[in-house]
TrEMBL record:
Belongs to the glycosyl hydrolase 28 family. The chain crosses the membrane at residues 28-46. This is Polygalacturonase. Gene3D superfamilies: Single-stranded right-handed beta-helix, Pectin lyase-like. The keyword Transcription does not apply. Keywords: Glycosidase, Hydrolase, Membrane, Transmembrane, Transmembrane helix. GO terms for biological process: carbohydrate metabolic process. PANTHER family: PECTIN LYASE-LIKE SUPERFAMILY PROTEIN (PTHR31339:SF44), PECTIN LYASE-RELATED (PTHR31339). It comes from the Eukaryota.
Length: 488
């Protein structure tokens, strides 16, 4: 990100002034000016004033809604020394804010310092504001992490049967949540979790860093999320979520399952202007797992990702799936840079998932120094007990345009199957420089679709070829030919 820290600081100073006393004064001033304005405007035209004029005019100039009352974590006994647990302070602060919900809610300011805490819940109408230099640190001892029932669309705790650890920052059935600040940090201290996981010392699935469930009207911006024990930011069955100007970091190796953002059964999501470099997928759009996801039946839809720079040496930049059993549709990914990663864009599923992936658009994507650029994989066989292998997902209407880059070993590997053919794929305006191979660089099987205009490397024979003007040049003779080489 390019914002300078002095920009952040001047924002901070402005914010500090908007305390409650000032707020009241400001509202009073707006009110007085409004009434004076009314008198001036309508005094001139007294003869034309009818009884509704005031209301019509008032609806234009009325004061904006109450701003959130501000609190400081230190007011609730917080100690930012990196050693004292602040769980009680966070809980008391959230409790105080929950009482102000009807009056516009409250903002909890977390000042610079290291604020160690066990997991805690947010409340509706709340802003969690992390000042420059503020770091919320997750307690490493898992005994402080509450266990929660499995997500209904997963049936399991994903890694283990039964319950799972909740998230460090958590919320359920909330409205109007803002997590923001001047680039303060939420740090999950994941290292101890990754080590315990690798040594099989955990009996339950690790918890995400931030998880909001069954909630709406969420804004997460201007913060850094770091070293989550598991998935980093997990909006679950939420609506209207904006994630903007967020940095998400975890080691690119040795930090298992530290996905950046996992919109899961969510609608109306915008993720923009983020830098994400983590130990698993940077973004993975999901909607539940096999029979549990099918039964829960909540799709992820209307999701826009734009202006993201991402890196994933273990998995992929932007993924859909592999858990997609409630369906994924209407996704737009634009202005994406994936660099020094294993894969760029990936759609992953398997027989047993059910659901669908459709109407997905990728445009203006830069693939820089990857093993595989674009991957669609239909045999991602990782299943809960009792899944139905006859539940076949459908994949259709996937379009790629403005795909450029360099140093990619295999720009395209689309691997459908007889059971799960991939339909209506289109490529337009693509040029991806190869790192060394000449063969097997545009691999396809059980794929139907189009290549339009200039495409490099040359598209596979499964696709119909059109010229720039959209005239058919050559119709594909077979969709099923296989040119898959996994030794890359
Ligand atoms: C926020 O902090 C992260 C981590 O220190 C840094 O990489 C990023 O550039 C910062 N963002 C801004 C806008 O200052
Ligand atoms: C919060 O309180 C601490 C300690 O009293 C103070 O240093 C800090 O400036 C306060 N922050 C805000 C945003 O009021
Ligand atoms: C949140 O604020 C809105 C509007 O200010 C209010 O209608 C609603 O009741 C509040 N919600 C809660 C849970 O306090
Ligand atoms: C957080 O909220 C969830 C859902 O309401 C609840 O089950 C859990 O006990 C709460 N956790 C804490 C620490 O209050
Ligand atoms: C896991 O379960 C075993 C056996 O019940 C127990 O000894 C161990 O302490 C548990 N570990 C954790 C991290 O809960
Ligand atoms: C979405 O959430 C934002 C932020 O809370 C809010 O301003 C906006 O009105 C919401 N949009 C809808 C359609 O509810
Ligand atoms: C995030 O920071 C940007 C740049 O300083 C600022 O324009 C924006 O208002 C901030 N967002 C919030 C919610 O504070
Ligand atoms: C993100 O930052 C940009 C520019 O710095 C700002 O215009 C935008 O409002 C910020 N987004 C949010 C949600 O704060
Ligand atoms: C899609 O989501 C955006 C928010 O990201 C919202 O503004 C828009 O209204 C939604 N579109 C539909 C068709 O619901
Ligand atoms: C794109 O996102 C980066 C942060 O990753 C930000 O610095 C830049 O201003 C954004 N560009 C636009 C055009 O919003
Ligand atoms: C996708 O978007 C289109 C147009 O906005 C809408 O008609 C369609 O219902 C959406 N599909 C889903 C599954 O939301
Ligand atoms: C596909 O999704 C886009 C938004 O991502 C929407 O505008 C369009 O109408 C959708 N088309 C169909 C056929 O659903």
């Amino acid at each position: 990100m390019v914002e300078t820290s002095s920009g952040w600081r001047s924002q901070l100073q402005q914010n500090n002034r908007s305390l409650m006393g000032l707020l009241t004064t400001r509202r009073a001033l707006v009110l007085v000016l409004s009434v004076v304005g009314f008198a001036l405007v309508f005094g001139w035209q007294a003869t034309t004033v009818d009884s509704t004029a005031f209301l019509r005019w008032w609806s234009v100039v009325r004061p904006e809604p109450l701003m959130r009352a501000e609190f400081n974590l230190t007011d609730f006994g917080g100690v930012g020394d990196g050693k004292t647990p602040n769980t009680g302070a966070f809980e008391r602060a959230v409790e105080a804010i929950s009482k102000l919900g009807e009056k516009g809610g409250g903002q909890l300011n977390v000042p610079a310092g290291l604020w160690l805490t066990a997991p805690f819940n947010l409340t509706s109408n709340m802003t969690l504001f992390l000042a420059e230099g503020a770091v919320i640190l997750g307690i490493e001892d898992e005994n402080y992490w509450q266990l929660m029932p499995p997500l209904p669309s997963y049936g399991y705790g994903r890694e283990h049967n039964g319950p799972r650890y909740g998230s460090l920052i958590h919320g359920q059935n909330l409205k109007n949540i803002i997590i923001t600040g001047h680039n303060g940090t939420i740090n999950g201290q994941g290292q101890s979790w990754w080590t315990k996981y690798k040594n099989k010392l955990l009996n339950y699935t690790r918890g995400p860093l931030v998880q909001l469930m069954w909630s709406k009207d969420i804004v997460i911006s201007n913060i850094t999320l770091r070293d989550s024990p598991f998935w980093t930011l997990h909006p679950y069955d939420c609506k209207n979520v904006t994630i903007s100007n967020v940095t998400i970091l975890a080691p690119v190796h040795g930090a298992p399952n530290t996905d950046g953002i996992d919109p899961d059964s969510c609608a109306d999501v915008l993720i923009e202007n983020c830098y994400i470099s983590v130990g698993d997928d940077a973004v993975a759009i999901k909607s539940g797992w096999d029979q549990y996801g099918i039964a829960y039946g909540r799709p992820s839809t209307n999701i826009t990702l734009r202006n993201l720079t991402v890196r994933s040496e273990v998995s992929a930049g932007i993924s859909i799936g592999s858990e997609m059993s409630g369906g994924v549709s209407n996704v737009t990914v634009e202005n994406l840079i994936v660099w020094k990663s294993r894969r760029g864009i990936r759609i992953k599923t398997a027989p047993g998932r059910g659901g669908y992936v459709r109407n997905i658009t990728y445009q203006n994507v830069t693939l820089d120094n990857l093993r595989v650029g674009i991957v669609i994989k239909t045999d991602y066989n990782e299943h809960p007990v009792g899944f139905n292998p006859k539940a076949l997902p459908t994949i259709e209407n996937i379009s790629f345009s403005g795909i450029h880059g360099q140093d990619v070993r295999v720009p395209v590997r689309i691997h459908g199957s007889e059971e799960i053919p991939i339909k209506d794929v289109s490529f337009r305006d693509m040029s991806v420089g190869l790192s060394y191979k000449k063969k097997h660089v545009f691999q396809c099987s059980f794929v139907e679709g189009r290549a339009i205009g200039s495409i490099f490397p040359a598209p596979c024979e499964n696709l119909d070829i059109y010229d720039e003007q959209g005239n058919l040049v050559k119709r594909s003779v077979s969709q099923n030919s296989t040119d898959i080489d996994y030794n890359i």
